[in-house]
Amino acid sequence: MDDRVAVIKGLILGHPAENGGNESLLRRVCSTAAKELSASGVGISVMTESGIRAATAASDPASELLEELQFMFGEGPCVDAFASRRPVLISDLGDLMTSEDDRWPFYAPAAHASGLRAVFAFPLQIGAARLGVLDVFRDHVGPLTNAELADAVAVADVTVTALLDRQEERPDSGIDDIDDDAAEYRAELFQAQGMVMVQLGVTLAEAMARIRAYAYAEDRRLSDVTRDIVARRLRFDRDER
Prior knowledge:
This protein is α+β, with helices and mostly antiparallel strands. It is built from 10 helices and 5 strands. The protein is globular, with a radius of gyration of 18 Å.
């Protein structure tokens, strides 16, 4: 296991001169994990303790969509893995949809329609600190093998260590910056909710639901829709309810 961790660490980190910033690191994690785990794609969401997504990366556009859908609907393997601090392993998304388990009533059918058949989410954490989640996507059903499961855990561990090392080496451009970005986004999101609440005469919860529904229907990022609402480029009218 230690040898395998060393191999994965080498694949992800490469040569020091090629490391780049956190965004480059996360993209390299995704592409490496997709190859090593025989996945159709991999996504990573870096999050604050309150569950607000601060940064994201994916191995390909399809995986980026699957990652985005979770925050658009507010549910999915990433959300559950972060909240529970435990891996979420779904070897057959179709079975989940046809069973009495209705944990993802919106995400599951949308992801399945996009080609997702199995998903495995691994928290990025060390001790009590949570940094985010690594999502492994597959376009075919079936569980991870024991070796693949061990490799996925190793990828998550290497990612956490690398992010924390960068924060220690460059305190002005590491996790603190991610937290600052998340705080700004959270304030923007709350402002957008308040604006839509007034525009439609609904509760804050319903305003958030309307914003998410609009983002999904228009195939746009939730953050982009939020920004347009705050900038008054987008307005929700009562006669459109």
